[in-house]
Amino acid sequence: MVPGDPLIELDGVEKVFTVRRRAGRLRRTKHEVRAVDGITFRVPRGEMVGYIGPNGAGKSTTIKMLTGILVPSGGRLRVAGIDPARERTRLARRIGVVFGQRTTLWWDLPLKDSYELVRRMYRVPDAVYRANLARCVELLELAPLLDVPVRQLSLGQRMRGDIAAALLHDPEVLYLDEPTIGLDVVSKAKVRSFLREVNADRGTTVLLTTHDLTDIEQLCRRVMVIDHGRLVHDGDLAGLRAAADGERMLVVDLARELPPIEGVPGARTVKVEGPRQWLAFPATGSAAPLVAAVADRYPLVDLSVREPDIEALIAELYAGGGAARREPGDGDPAAP
Ligand SMILES: Nc1ncnc2c1ncn2[C@@H]1O[C@H](COP(=O)(O)OP(=O)(O)OP(=O)(O)O)[C@@H](O)[C@H]1O
Ligand SMILES: [Mg+2]
């Protein structure tokens, strides 16, 4: 393949889970969850793409299909020309995966023994292994950690260890499912600069899932947004922000759960989570009159003004597009 070739190709990919739910004391009913609902996109070789969306949108399910862990229910999927579910082992040599929520390292072994196992598992040639390990150790500052059992590592140390493990066999594609989750600012910065380097230097294609918009801002020119298993945006971050109409958010904490705030001129409620509500207002306007209007009629406990985060952006995108607004308790997986 040459640069620019699509390395990841999805055409109408679907994943439907059948789950059994309790209905009454003895009866169980079958219920379908369309986790991924007809997704089509291409990722050219060398690109670093953000794959974002609210909880339960279908991001991890997509990544699991791209690794071959899950078999799609429909559509066509290719990674480096390989059908992942059919040739999972062959594909494994060409991809690296990091699931931020759980480690792929051996819990009781020192980091360096885990790496040794990875080397044997993928039959990585000695010279390649040594060069890759040296690079990762230097850039991810792993030297003091190599003899430490994985279970003794902090979350940030473990994540850096996991990322190194995913790269020792020189994969062409790296899937990162929330690689910065739970990390402090310093660790996040380390991980980001390392990923930037891997992408720029090695030309590794990266698909990145995150809830941190800063990850996207700093790493990805292209961002895809998935919601309820469907792709709702594929373009640059600026386009995504524009879709939110250059609005800011007034986040208010009320004394109790109340219906969405109404009748505040220049603002509209785009998200409600328990007693917390998000009101979008034009970025050019001032929050002061809105605060006054809310405080006048609602039991206001606390407030803050925010640039839209990913969840709010998506809520905005949907509210603006006339799609259903999300509220807790309506069966929406995004609800806490
Ligand atoms: N093995 C499974 N069996 C049944 N349902 C599942 C399974 N895995 C995922 N789901 C459902 O599929 C939907 C998508 O889940 P997925 O894990 O892909 O979301 P996500 O976008 O990664 O969310 P998060 O941001 O919370 O990680 C959810 O409704 C989830 O409950
Ligand atoms: Mg997930």
Q: Can you put this structure into words, describing what you see?
A:
The chain is of the alpha/beta class and 336 residues long. 31% of the residues lie in helices and 30% in strands. It is built from ten helices and 13 strands. Strands 5-6-7-3-8-9 form a six-stranded mixed beta sheet, sandwiched between helices. β11 and β12 form a beta hairpin. Bound molecules: adenosine-5'-triphosphate (ATP) and magnesium ion (MG). The site of adenosine-5'-triphosphate has 13 residues, from β1, β2 and α1.
Can you give keywords for this protein?
336 residues, alpha/beta, six-stranded mixed beta sheet, four-stranded antiparallel beta sheet, 10 helices, globular, binds adenosine-5'-triphosphate, binds magnesium ion
Query: Which term fits the overall shape?
Result: globular
| Rg over alpha carbons | 22 Å
Q: Beta fraction of the residues? A: 25-35%
Q: Note the gap between the termini.
A: 44 Å
What is bound: which ligands?
A: adenosine-5'-triphosphate, magnesium ion
Described by strand count, sense and barrel closure, the largest sheet is:
6 strands, mixed
Strand order of the largest sheet: 5-6-7-3-8-9
Number of strands: 13
Q: Average pLDDT across residues?
A: 87
Number of helices: 10
User: What is the structural class?
Assistant: alpha/beta
Low-confidence stretches: 320-336
- Give the fraction of residues assigned to helices: 25-40%
